[in-house]
Amino acid sequence: MGLEIERAEGCKIYTTDGREYVDLISGIAVSSLGHRHPAVIKAIKEQLDRHLHVMVYGEFIQKPQSEFAELLTSNLPEKLDRVYFVNSGTEANEGALKLAKKFTGRTKFVAFRDGYHGDTHGSLSVTGRDVYRDPYLPLLPNVEFLDFNDPSGLDAIDNQTAAVIMEPIQGEGGIIPANPDWLKEIRRRCDDTGALLIFDEIQSGFFRTGKLFAFEHYGVVPDILSLAKAMGGGMPIGAFVSSSEIFEVFKKDPPLNHVTTFGGHPVSCAAAHANLQTLLAGDFEAKAARIAEIACHMLRGKGITEVRGRGAMLGLQLRDSELTKNVVEHCFQKGIILGWTLHSDTLVRIAPPLIIEEELLEECFRVIMEAVEKFA
Ligand code: PMP
């Protein structure tokens, strides 16, 4: 986009040449509390004055890590009681895949077409778009891709399968929520075959969909949960969460199964802790629902095929890619940052900070509609 950033605050981004933009995609589902939330900034500053990196992750006891892990797991189902911190989303999935292989002693993975799990080799191996994979083949050998929301083919989940990895709501694939019965069937199939179920909630987590995690909408609990993006309140951090029983296999043979120097950086953990405390204290379930309600009410008309998603993880499906390009460009000229998703060029991503005021949101939606009416 060619923007040179001066500063960012709340829902706004300011450039060095004096322009201001509304960030309607939260830096791609990161800044859920807006940019530089005061509680997050305070926690970062306090941690800066205590210590930065002191040792490779896991060797020393560091309060910012243990306190944040405690808060996170106390808000998760009982069996998700152990957290391993890393630096990013893709690294969380790398850890999740390794953990599933080690625990089950199996090597096969089941993943979904148009799913996105990151760009390192393991995560790319379970990402369901050939255009991103082909230049890097061969990847992990034993991955089977199924169609998302298609009940046929679930017998691919068998007793050779280490894990099924999936997003409960596909993000880059075009904001596609899983069908609840289908998701329950996958859980059942995993239970029957001993395969683990990995939910990648890197994009859907931390109230983006109105619940702390999207799986809560479905009543389906994964065996491993991968997290990143909004977790750090703007700081880089990721995690994979599972049960103590499953994590047991990471303790031996070799004794260090997943070393990461900077994983769970104390400043990132302090930020993440303040971020989660603030999210839990707020009324973000209602706020996300209201964002969806306003979107469904205002974004309708010729050229718009569908508004879909959940809470504040929304996609505006437009008639064709030309219209989509024009709408995104028009909004950009008017100071609104929108975006595509990686796997779809006819869908406008809408993921505003959850703190956005209704007036500002409505103003942005009026500009989107102005563009749709102009170009449709
Ligand atoms: N999984 C999902 C569902 C994502 O949306 C993303 C990022 N778009 C990733 C994994 C990768 O995260 P990161 O960019 O932090 O590696």
Tell me about this structure.
With 376 residues, the chain is an alpha/beta fold. 36% of the residues lie in helices and 20% in strands. The chain has helices at 26-29, 38-48, 63-74, 89-104, 121-125, 130-133, 180-193, 215-218, 244-247, 266-281, 284-298, 321-333, 358-375, and strands at residues 5-9, 12-15, 20-23, 82-86, 108-112, 143-146, 161-166, 169-170, 176-177, 196-200, 224-227, 238-242, 304-310, 313-318, 336-337, 339-341, 344-350. The strands form 4 sheets. Strands 4-12-11-10-7-5-6 form a 7-stranded mixed beta sheet, with helices on both faces. It has a 4-stranded mixed beta sheet with strand order 1-2-3-15. The protein has a 4-stranded antiparallel beta sheet with strand order 13-14-17-16, with helices on one face. A hairpin with a 2-residue loop joins β1 and β2. The chain is globular, with a radius of gyration of 20 Å. The model has no long low-confidence stretch (mean pLDDT 97). 4'-deoxy-4'-aminopyridoxal-5'-phosphate (PMP) is lined by residues 88-90, 116-118, 167, 171-172, 200, 202-203, 228.
Can you give me a brief rundown of this structure?
The protein has 376 residues and is an alpha/beta fold. 36% of the residues lie in helices and 20% in strands. Strand 13 and strand 14 form a beta hairpin.
How many individual β-strands?
Answer: 17
Strand order of the largest sheet: 4-12-11-10-7-5-6
Q: What is the alpha-carbon Rg in Å?
A: 20 Å
Shape: globular
- Secondary-structure element series: EEEHHHEHEHHEEEEHEHEEHHHEEHEEEH
Q: pLDDT average, as an integer?
A: 97
Cα-to-Cα separation, first versus last residue: 23 Å
Helix content: 25-40%
Strand content: 15-25%
Number of continuous helical runs:
13
**Whole-number tally of structural domains:** 2
Low-confidence stretches: none
Q: What composes the largest sheet?
A: 7 strands, mixed
